[in-house]
Structure formats: C-alpha cells, structure tokens
Amino acid sequence: MMRFQYKPLFQIILASAAVLFFSNYASAGRLGEPRRASRAAKNSTMKTTITGANGMTPDQRKLLQQSIKSLMVQQKNADKIERSLAEGDWDFLNDYLSSLAFEIDVDTTSTFNGIEFTVGTISCDNFAIKDIVTEGDGSTTRYNLSFLVDGISLSCVMEYEYDGGWFLRGGGNIDLLVDSATFVKTTLSFISPDFNTGGPSDASLSCNADVQISDLDFNNFLLNLIAPLLIDSIEPEVESLICEPIEDLEDLLAQAIMDVASILDELSQPLPPELADPLYPEQLLAPVLEASKLDYIDFAPIIDILDGPLQALVQLLMDQILGEDGVIILPFPMPIIEGVDLVEIRLLGFNDFTFDPFSLIGNYTIQTQYQQKFLGVEMDVAVAFPDDTTEIVEVKTGVNELALNLSSLLVVEALGGIPWTDPSLALSCLLDTFFAFEVSGLSVSSSSLAPIEITGLSEFQGPTSLLNEVSEAIFFMYDDLLIKALNYFFETEVRSTINDAVAIRSKTCTEKLEGSTVYIPSQTACYKAQLFEGGVLAADLS
Length: 542
Known about the structure:
Blueprint: E1 2-5, H1 10-28, H2 58-71, H3 91-97, E2 102-112, E3 115-128, E4 131-138, E5 142-163, E6 169-191, E7 202-210, E8 213-217, H4 227-247, H5 250-267, H6 273-276, H7 280-291, H8 300-321, E9 328-337, E10 340-348, E11 353-360, E12 365-384, E13 390-412, H9 423-432, E14 434-445, E15 448-455, H10 461-505, H11 509-513, E16 517-521, E17 526-530, E18 537-540
Parallel strand pairs: 1-2
Antiparallel strand pairs: 2-3, 3-5, 4-5, 5-6, 6-7, 6-8, 9-10, 10-12, 11-12, 12-13, 13-14, 13-15, 16-17, 17-18
Helix pairs in contact: 1-4, 5-10
C-alpha cells in the first residue's frame, strides 16, 4: 500500500455541510449525546451517533429516504466499477491497478462556528482506466507532448470526526465513488531556440483534471440529505489533489532535460583538428617521407584502373542479393530474452545509392564514399504470450540521406622481385612493404533520423501508440544532436578501435626478427646479432 502526505481542503466543505445540517437540525429538536468515534476503526464503516428525542415513524423515515435517493446524481455501486475498455488495450494495466490501494494522510483539524472538524485518512482502491491517449505537436521552437488518461474510476473512503460539544459530536466514514467520466490530461512542453540545430533547453508541465463524483455517502441518513448538494463543491478539490503533485514535478522535468542535453552535448561536441581533417596523419608523416630514400607506390594510376570495374562489381552483387524494391532480407533467428525471439531483419532503400570505391584526396590518403537516399531497417520479432499464442511484432526505423566517408592513409614501399609463385612468401613480402596505415577519417552524416515505430501488437494498441508517440517526440527534439553524437562516436570510438586493432596485428621490423639470429655484412667484418635473451653480438673480421 502506498501512503502519501497531503493536506487538501476537503475538511472545509464537509465541515460547512455539518454546520449547515446541525444548525437546522438543532432548531427543530433536541440532540442526544453520541459516543465518540474510535480511530481504531479506521478502515471499517463508522456510523455517526446523532439521535433525536422525537424521532420519525418508520413509514416517514422510509418515505424520506426514497425521496432523497431520487435526488441523487447516481446510485451507489460499491461492488463493481463500470469499465468500457477498447478490447485488450489496457487490460494488463487494469489487472495491476485493480490490486492497487493507496492512502492519503490528511489528519488535520479545523474549527468552524465552534465545531472542530477532523479529516483523518483517505483510502482509495478499485482503480481502473479506459484509455491513455498520447498526442504530440511541434514547431521549430516548441514541442507539446500530452497524455490523456481517460475513463478513470475508483472508490475512496474518507475518515472524519466532528466535535461541537455535548450535542454535536460524532464521526464516520464518507464513501466516495469516482465515475468513469473522469479524466486527467498532462501536457509536457519542451522549448528550444531551434530544434533543427539543438535539443530542448527548458521544459514546463501542466495538468488538467475533470473529476466526476457519482456518489457521496456519509453512511448517515441525515447527512446524506445534503450529500448530492456537495458534489459540485468537492470535485474541484479532488482535481486539485490530483494535479498539484503532478505539477510539482515541473522542476524535476526541467532538470532532467538539462541533464540529457548535457550528455548529448558532450557526445556531439566539435571534433578536434587532428580528427576532423582526414589529411592530418599524412601531413604529420610528410617530413619523414620526404627524407626517406625509399620509393613508395603511387596509387593514382591504380585507382584509375580499378575504379570502374569495382563499381560494376558492387552493382552486380547488389543485383544478385536484392529483393523487390531494393530490399535485402536477412533471416536471423535468435533469442533475445525469454519469450521474445528475433526472426528476420530487412534492409531497405538499396535501389537508390551511389558508391565511389576509391578516390585519392592526398598523396597517400584514399577515400571511399557511400551515399543512400534512405536506409530503412525493419525487424520481425516473435513474442510469445502466456496463453500459448505467438504474435509477430515489427520494429521499424531508418536514416534519411545517409552518407558514409572512410579515409585511410596508406604508404606502401615499392619493391620488385616479389616471389609470386610462392603465395605465402609473396604475402609476407607484401605485408613487409606496408610503411604506414591508419584510418584517418570515418564520418557518418544524415539529414534526419526516422523514429522507431512498433506495429503488430493487436491486443496492445494503446500501449503501442503511446510508445510510438513518445519515440516520435524524442526523435523530433533530439534528431540533430543524435546525428552529431553518432558521427562523433564513429570518428572517435569506432575509428580508434580499428586503428588499435591494426596496430596490434602489425609488427615492426625488430618485432618480426625477435628470437632469431641476424647476420649483417659490412666492408670490414660480418656481424652476428642473436636477438633473444642471452644472445650475443659478435663480429667476424676474417
């Protein structure tokens, strides 16, 4: 059970009602002394103990009760709260809410015309909803995301006591039934100087509640006479009780926005010059290459020869593997979590792309470019439900105007006499000719990202719609920052990982000779160097 500390104004309304009733009733007859209600009977029905010396006859009482009931807004229905749900939409949530009970500790005493009126605890249960509707609406500077919780119904019991002296003393429980016409709408507003160039910088929150009370029962015949007249006064207080805690979250929401913006700003900061310029590694190496006595391969004529055939080969391969409308289908059966299995991945948009295998942007820096108008990703996921049924859920996203640029510094020594007849020896010789290799640029850019969309959960259309709307809001507000963060990640983390892997696998000349004996002839002697622990360096002068 959840407990909240809160002090609403219910006691004002109820005390006023008590004053109205007691002032009229005391003038009509004498009041007997009631017993004081016990706080120990907190969750049981406590009857007020006001009695009159000159009471009504049973027939008169019955007639008056029938007349009062005809004036009620609705008859009390404590056994069942009516729900009219779209089939399956929020049943899983209502299954949880039906077992949820919470209390609001008021425990305040106010005095009105000499009568002390105390409100103790408000306990609520039988909570249910009909629907949650999520809507988003945005401009370049503002995005509003609203959540309408519709068809709220619940029943509450409010504990109260009053003490006005010998003749005005008692207590009891008020049964309050909230009708399913009740709704609460919360709107989150995100503000940005320009969503095209950055995410939200501030946020605000507003709440609008419309509470419809269908029954108000004091569990006392006389107080129930005026109960229907109090409903319109109590409803605004309940609405305030709902919205005030929600609106108190505004500062937390604004702080969360600032925290997210700070993280994304860190990941989307401008690249330093040594990472932003793909020719930077070549410029650092230029003095070494100029001073070297070795000859290095000029890749320009090689690229001119290979460029056309490579483009044709890539197009041929695409034609072989592409399905209709430029779709690549990849069967990929793999369990994700218990009851959820990946079935298939589809890549879309390969009927509209350009590929430039190699172009020389420096003396030794080669660039590969790939552009695609739209790269879509679709995944089919099989979801197993407790009733032994399985449903295929489709998850979709994509990238608009995708551009990939890979730049590599490649310096290769020009050597002749490679033994092509011995493939293993030829490969070793070719690897020995690599003087320098480094990925000098790995950029990813896009005009926009498509939001993640989920379809296929036929029994959960409400939750699916909510997730899709939230996804659209996130991508609308953070699209630019996400693209910058993606490019920063590729230019730093991915690029560094590739270069580190290449450096580990590429041994230096001395590393390759480690553990062997090397003979170095000269004009005066032949030197022997044993490159292992305990080895010697000797010279043979003969």
